[in-house]
Design a protein that fits this description.
The complex is a heterodimer of chains A (523) and B (184).
Chain A (H helix, E strand, L loop, with lengths): L12 E4 L3 H12 L4 E4 L14 H8 L6 E3 L3 H5 L32 H5 L14 H15 L14 H12 L5 E2 L38 H7 L3 E4 L3 E7 L5 E7 L5 E5 L2 E4 L2 H11 L24 E8 L15 E2 L15 E5 L4 H7 L7 H8 L4 E8 L8 E9 L5 E6 L4 H19 L5 E5 L34 E3 L14 H20 L4
Chain B lengths: L21 H16 L11 H14 L7 H17 L1 H22 L9 H13 L7 H14 L32
Helix pairs in contact in B: 1-4, 2-3, 3-4, 3-6, 4-5
Classes of the chains: A alpha/beta (523), B mainly alpha (184).
Chain lengths: 523, 184
């Protein structure tokens, strides 16, 4: 039975957001008997609400509250009002994610040490390393049922994967396979196995894909320790004279304002909303925003080097059939500066249905050339290039100086300038993907520079020294001990891997820490 | 879904900065459009059939797929017709745009836009209305951003490009060809 807590119950953990970070944290705490109230800005949908319709689902679950983008990055030119494609519903972006569940590599936790000092970057080592997080990766993989780990069989290879792997083999790559996916290859954990329907990104109608919406959250509720309040947009966090946070003020679906008291607050609103909320919670005691004595809050925004190469063949591929992103080439993920950049990248399948492909393939273009690409839709294969981008203190989420949202609060602006290292990696990746597809007879390749970011990281980063970041090795604010950050905002570096598995691993680890601290009356 | 700007686009015209200026820009150019449009007699109750015909031709020229007959482009233009019937500002914007296209077409070849036979000449007119500072402010963007969605979102066109649409109700592609590729 879902719990029901009083607004004045100050014994609860208040969790803001219900995605990979917040949803996981709620269930992990609930399993330990710790009560929480989850405040989720979006609605609660059910699996039966999912449609195999790209446009309908985009409208149904995307976070479309006003935002702006600035900087030299491509997204600021092509989508100045939609810098990120992330979701607003119970389950957050885990409803939409492609389910690639990759571990970070050892060197990616030590970018300052391994990459050295790079002009224009603000690199820092994580205050934890791979060895320390490995047990939590294990727990995350078992929880999510990640294929290719712990004896869970991999998914079968689709047409789209066959094309990618044939090219990879031809150019001499050796590390290609169906990806480690948080999608059931066999029935598991009360959920069905993948039916190769191809609409992973629109919400899995078979629940074969792990999402907190129908795994962590109902399990948390079943303990009687968790209450999820959908359509509850947190406006600011309050604190007392000692500097501890005391509660969250939020608006419900009618716009009525409520104040939920809290023993601990964990913020997991994604790397744009999390810093925005903390910045919007400034006070006379915390004039630069909560937990911002370092001045790093909102800075070091990372969104991965990304680009997509679509290749046109003269025979059918049907890229839309099958598990969307289950196919990867990992050879370029290594750390090898001989390529002209630090960090590495993955090459992952990226199919699109006809509606989204045709509307986005060449932004703002029209005429015969563009139409000729779409005319070849059935013969097209696509690979997404996703690699590490570097922390920069000038890449940041700030409060807009003049524009306000429906609650009268400043909207976020997302500023990002490509670092020369990002551009060098992008050039290399586009060239390698071209070569891969051309090696097996592609007639033409089309480069699609970044889509709005689904990976958003770094804006409340972990640091050993409180001077360098916002939270410590547990995601606990350096400045406020009962305030936690539980999403990708914590990331000190972006790694070259999709972030969700690491967010889940950190949430499991954070739950252990919160429980331990509570049992010692330290929280 | 179209991931690009849902308001309007500035990059090619470049007359205003993006982002922070977006609200001001829409207001300013909208005002200019309305002022210009007062010189065009607004037909009550929506667009005339000749105007619709021009928009259909224009949309086909934007997204020229020879495999699609005109009915798909007619359907793509429907949302513009419906909006014009309800909203005077949209009607005036579309009328003004069509009238400007025809004016330029007459200057160039002595015909209306839809009568111009050579595609490259119509393409030149589209380029002009997209970029010319004297073009009716939002006309190009309005038609482009509406019809790129309403054309490709018609389930009836999907099979013509080999796209099979919703699959879950059919059990996905597990037994329907997700791995049937054999030409490699």
């Amino acid at each position: 039975m879902p719990a029901k807590f009083d607004l004045n119950d100050s014994s609860v953990v208040v969790i803001i957001g219900s995605g990979a970070g917040g949803g996981t944290l709620a269930n992990e705490l609930a399993q330990k008997g710790i009560s929480s109230v989850v405040l989720e800005a979006g609605k609660r949908l059910e699996i039966t609400d999912f449609q195999n319709d790209e446009d309908a689902m985009f409208g149904l679950f995307t976070w479309l509250d006003p935002r702006t983008a600035s900087g030299s990055w491509y997204v600021a030119q092509t989508s100045p009002d939609l810098p990120a494609w992330i979701c607003k519903l119970v389950g957050g972006t885990t409803v939409h994610w492609g389910a690639c569940a990759l571990r970070f590599q050892e060197h990616e936790f030590k970018t300052q040490t391994r990459y050295g000092s790079l002009t224009g970057a603000n690199l820092l080592d994580w205050p934890l390393d791979l060895k320390e997080i490995e047990p939590y990766y294990d727990r995350a993989e078992l929880k999510m049922g990640v294929t290719g780990t712990h004896g869970i069989p991999r998914l079968p290879v689709s047409n789209h994967g066959k094309v990618l792997f044939a090219g990879a083999k031809k150019v001499g790559y050796t590390q290609f396979m169906t990806t480690n996916m948080a999608i059931n290859s066999v029935p598991r954990d009360g959920r069905a196995s993948c039916q190769q329907a191809g609409f992973c990104i629109q919400g899995c109608t078979f629940a074969a894909k792990w999402s907190t919406l129908y795994t962590e959250i109902p399990r948390a509720e079943a303990t009687g320790k968790t209450e999820v309040r959908p359509e509850s947009q947190v406006l600011h966090i309050e604190h007392d004279n000692s500097g501890k946070v005391t509660g969250a003020v939020y608006a419900d679906r009618t716009g009525a304002i409520h104040r939920q008291k809290a023993r601990v607050i964990a913020v997991a609103g994604n790397a744009i909303e999390t810093p925005r909320l903390l910045l919007n919670s400034s006070s006379s005691m915390f004039p630069g925003g909560l937990a911002n004595s370092s001045g790093q809050l909102g800075k070091n925004y990372m969104r991965h080097m990304t680009s997509t190469v679509f290749a046109i063949f003269d025979k059918p591929v049907h890229m839309y059939r099958g598990t969307a992103q289950s196919g990867i080439v990992m050879d370029e993920a290594r750390f090898d500066t001989r390529r002209g950049f630090v960090g590495g990248y993955q090459m992952e399948l990226l199919p699109q249905g006809l509606p989204s492909f045709s509307q986005n393939i060449v932004p703002n273009a029209w005429g015969r050339d563009r139409a000729s690409i779409i005319d070849n839709y059935v013969n097209i294969a696509g690979v997404w290039l996703i690699g590490e981008d570097l922390a920069r203190d000038t890449n940041r989420v700030t409060l807009h100086p003049s524009r306000k949202d429906q609650y009268g609060l400043p909207i976020p602006n997302v500023h990002s300038d490509d670092h020369p290292n990002d551009l060098a990696m992008q050039r290399h990746a586009l060239g390698q993907a071209d070569a891969l597809y051309q090696s097996i007879g592609a007639k033409r390749t089309v480069h699609r520079l970044p889509f709005p970011s689904t990976h958003n990281m770094g804006t409340a980063r972990m640091s050993q020294n409180p001077r360098d970041g916002v939270v410590n090795r547990w995601g606990q604010a350096h400045d406020i001990k009962n305030l936690f950050v539980s999403d990708g905002s914590q990331f000190t570096s972006s790694g070259g891997e999709n972030p969700t598995l690491t967010i889940v691993a950190l949430a499991i680890r954070q739950a252990d820490y919160i429980a331990d601290q509570m049992s010692h009356a330290a929280l | 879904m179209k991931l690009g700007s849902r308001t309007r686009r500035f990059s090619r015209r470049g007359f205003l900065a993006r982002g922070a200026a977006a609200v001001a820009a829409v207001t300013a150019s909208g005002g200019r459009v309305v002022a210009e449009a007062q010189h065009v007699a607004a037909a009550p109750g929506g667009l005339q059939s000749e105007e619709v015909h021009t928009l259909v031709k224009f949309t086909r020229d934007l997204f020229p797929h020879d495999r699609l007959d005109d009915s798909f482009y007619q359907r793509a233009v429907k949302p513009l017709e419906e909006e014009a019937a309800k909203d005077g500002a949209t009607r005036q914007l579309l009328m003004l745009g069509v009238s400007r296209l025809n004016e330029w077409a007459h200057q160039a070849v002595g015909k209306t836009y839809a009568e111009v036979e050579q595609e490259e000449k119509r393409v030149a007119l589209i380029q002009r209305i997209e970029t010319d500072p004297s073009a009716p402010g939002d006309f190009f963007h309005k038609v482009y951003s509406t019809t790129i969605v309403s054309l490709y979102n018609q389930p009836e066109i999907w099979p013509k490009f080999g796209y099979e649409g919703p699959s879950s109700a059919k059990g996905g592609y597990l037994d329907r060809g997700f791995n049937d590729l054999n030409w490699l």
